[in-house]
Q: What sequence folds into this?
């Protein structure tokens, strides 16, 4: 009889525990499945945004073919529109404008990693028609990849080796590829050392993006606290390797944080890269009085001019050469 009582007591005590554990396991499985779905939605959104940047970008140059005055114009609004279009579609919010606005509140910033600077698209506060405070995503002023050396020279870096330099000693500006400026800017030490140039360039670009993101997220938190939001947005930990891979080309970074998911919140960041700079550049040289253009990977170090493609080089009278 005691055995029966103990058995009944055991069942009464343990069954609820087993049942709760089963429910928790089921909830965790459902949460994990939803997280994977959201991750995929974010990744697809930034990939589509980066693809839009790639297909809509326009190169502007002072001289056709020659890259010493080149400038890359990005259609950043098109990229952001593409991001949200894909995100809303994958979240099942295509025709629900109110829920779309609610989802945007959990996206503190979208960063466009541009050719010569970073653009931040984030919420900002403004006064509406009825003198009430409202929030809306807007573009922040572009932050260039700028650096000042010990001699006071101001250097504007880009995602490749193209630079703009201001020399206070002469009050002059120079623009061109690092290799082009070595001889004309001997008083700028960083241009004379290829390895040092690349190391400093990468460090400055990463630091600029990180600082811009941190400042934007901090501003977002201050406004959120004033509006009664208790969740604190933070810049996620991203490895140095991932950062340096990110700045190899124009791209998009997007962050989503604090989105309610069961008893916890959903946080994720996604990176999308284009291939705007991965082109078959040609560099022109004069050998024995004849103009030759070589692919970038095997071009002589004394190249005189640079071109986007073989066709551009040929238009300027260069004979095309191939790598061995």
A:
């Amino acid at each position: 009889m005691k055995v029966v009582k103990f058995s009944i007591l055991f069942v009464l005590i343990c069954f609820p525990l087993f049942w709760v554990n089963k429910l928790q396991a089921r909830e965790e499985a459902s949460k994990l499945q939803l997280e994977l779905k959201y991750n995929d939605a974010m990744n697809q959104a930034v990939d589509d945004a980066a693809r839009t940047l790639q297909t809509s970008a326009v190169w502007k140059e002072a001289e056709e073919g020659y890259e010493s005055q080149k400038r890359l114009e990005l259609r950043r609004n098109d990229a952001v529109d593409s991001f949200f279009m894909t995100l809303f579609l994958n979240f099942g919010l295509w025709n629900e404008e109110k829920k779309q606005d609610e989802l945007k509140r959990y996206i503190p910033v979208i960063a466009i990693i541009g050719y010569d600077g970073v653009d931040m698209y984030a919420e900002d506060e403004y006064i509406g028609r009825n003198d009430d405070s409202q929030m809306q995503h807007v573009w922040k002023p572009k932050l260039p990849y700028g650096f000042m050396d010990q001699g006071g020279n101001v250097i504007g870096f880009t995602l490749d080796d193209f630079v703009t330099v201001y020399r206070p000693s002469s009050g002059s500006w120079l623009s061109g590829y690092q290799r082009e400026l070595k001889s004309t800017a001997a008083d700028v030490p960083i241009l004379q050392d290829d390895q040092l140039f690349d190391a400093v360039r990468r460090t400055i670009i990463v630091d600029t993006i990180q600082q811009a993101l941190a400042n934007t997220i901090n501003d977002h938190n201050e406004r959120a606290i004033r509006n009664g939001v208790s969740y604190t947005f933070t810049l996620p930990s991203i490895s140095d390797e991932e950062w340096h891979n990110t700045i190899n080309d124009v791209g998009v970074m997007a962050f989503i944080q604090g989105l309610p998911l069961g008893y916890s919140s959903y946080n994720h960041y996604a990176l999308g890269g284009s291939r705007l700079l991965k082109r078959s550049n040609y560099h022109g040289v004069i050998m024995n009085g004849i103009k030759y253009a070589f692919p970038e990977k095997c071009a002589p170090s004394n190249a005189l001019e640079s071109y986007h493609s073989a066709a551009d080089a040929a238009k300027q009278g260069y004979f095309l050469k191939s790598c061995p």
